[in-house]
Structure formats: structure tokens, C-alpha cells
Amino acid sequence: MPGAVSATPPPELATAARTLFGDRLSLAVAYAGLLVTDGVVRGLIGPREAPRIWDRHLLNCAAVAERIPLGSTVLDVGSGAGLPGLVLAVARPDLSVTLVEPLARRTAFLVEAVAQLDLAASVQVVRGRAEEIASGGGGVEPLTGDVVTARAVAPLDRLARWCLPLAVPGGRLVALKGASAVEEVAEHAAIVDRLGGGRPEVHHCGAGVVEPPTTVIEIARERVVAPARPKPAKRSRGGRRR
Ligand SMILES: C[S@@+](CC[C@H](N)C(=O)[O-])C[C@H]1O[C@@H](n2cnc3c(N)ncnc32)[C@H](O)[C@@H]1O
Q1: What domains can be seen in the chain, in order of their start residue?
Q2: How far apart are CA 40 and CA 35, in angstroms?
């Protein structure tokens, strides 16, 4: 088909793909196939992303697996087309992964992708916002995980507010970030502390395998902090709420 994008890794990335996906490489190729066809047609992946689906998306996300302990439960917040959560589930059959995404069009794609890749035993899709999932609001069942992942969802302060309550005590937020990681840490470390998080750490994943390595900010959930209570409305002299 003219213009069709191949789902197999380009030759220069074949070694990295084998290293990161091992004997699950054919499953990763099947997922890439869904992304570059259905994912593009349904508007989950930009057409310009299709030719770089391996280096910018699949390998970039799979590199983060090295930061996730064996047998972890993972909540991927703002999964979109499954990045990084579905990639991690493909690369790591030991993980139990929940893909959290508020938009129905995206969760529909995710549910179909999970079924087509035969991953239903280890992956569930939950429609909702991170802040609802933490509190059990909006009719969504409250969930927590050992590791909470997020890529391209929000700046670090908002991400910490949404995601730290989703990590079990002692669990971690692993946020995939770009070149801004060090500045984001400097800017938001005080807020993270107030939210019960430990000192944010910047790690580079996949060094020597993917170029450039994937930068992540990791924050441990050290303390459980009650959510901020809404401020009471100001009263007028007559004691009535304004
Ligand atoms: C730019 S997309 C990134 C998607 C995917 N993580 C990726 O890297 O391709 C941001 C995603 O976050 C989702 N999102 C936005 N606010 C959210 C919230 N409060 N809770 C959970 N997901 C949210 C959006 O619906 C969207 O799918």
C-alpha cells in the first residue's frame, strides 16, 4: 500500500528492540502495527509520529522498565494510546498494569488493543481522571499501585498532586520527562515535599541501548498527606455566605 508505514523496527533500531523486548518482540511489533494503522486513523497518534513509532515511543517507553521492580502493580496515568503503560505490559509479563485515561475514544482503543494483543490477564483499562481514582470520586473505584507512571500528562507539581495518592506508601511516581526534568525538580521540590513525596530523583534509562536515554523523575511516596480541604466561603457581616 503506498504510504503505509512498516510496524517492524527499522534496521538501525533492531538490536535495541531485541534488547528491550526480548522474546516479546513479536507482540511489540503487533502493538506497533495497531498504533500506525488504527491509532493514526482514530487520531490517537499523529500521522507524523507513525514513521518514528519505535524510537520516539516504543523504545523510549520500554527503556523505563529497568526502573520497575519485578512483579509490581503499575498504574499508568493519562495513557492515551497506551504509552508507556501498554508498552511496559508488552515488555514485562510479570507486571500487572492498569491504564487510566479519561477520554472515551482513547479507552475504547485501549480496550480493543488489550484484547487483540491477548493481554487481558495482566492489563485493565479504567476510564477516569487520576484525581477521581485516588478519592474514589466520580463513581470510579479507588485504586493504588506500587508504581505510578505518566508521560506527557502535566507539569511535575500537578502530576505529584494527582499521582502520589495513587502510589502505595513506599511506592513511587515515575514520570517520563524530557530535557526539562532538572528544572522541574528545582521548581517543584518544595510542593512535592508538602504532598508527602521524597526528594525527586532524575534517572536516565536505557543508556547504551536507546539514544538519547529516557529521562525520568522518580518520587517515592514517603508520607500519607490528607488532601487539602476546600477553603470555607467568606461570610458577610450578616453571617450569610457570599
Ligand atoms: C499528551 S497525552 C499523552 C498520552 C500518552 N501518555 C503519551 O505519552 O502518548 C495526555 C493524556 O493525559 C490524559 N489526561 C489529562 N488529564 C488527566 C487526568 N487528570 N487524569 C488522567 N489522565 C489525564 C489525556 O486525556 C491524554 O490522553
Answers
A1: 67-221 (3.40.50.150)
A2: 6
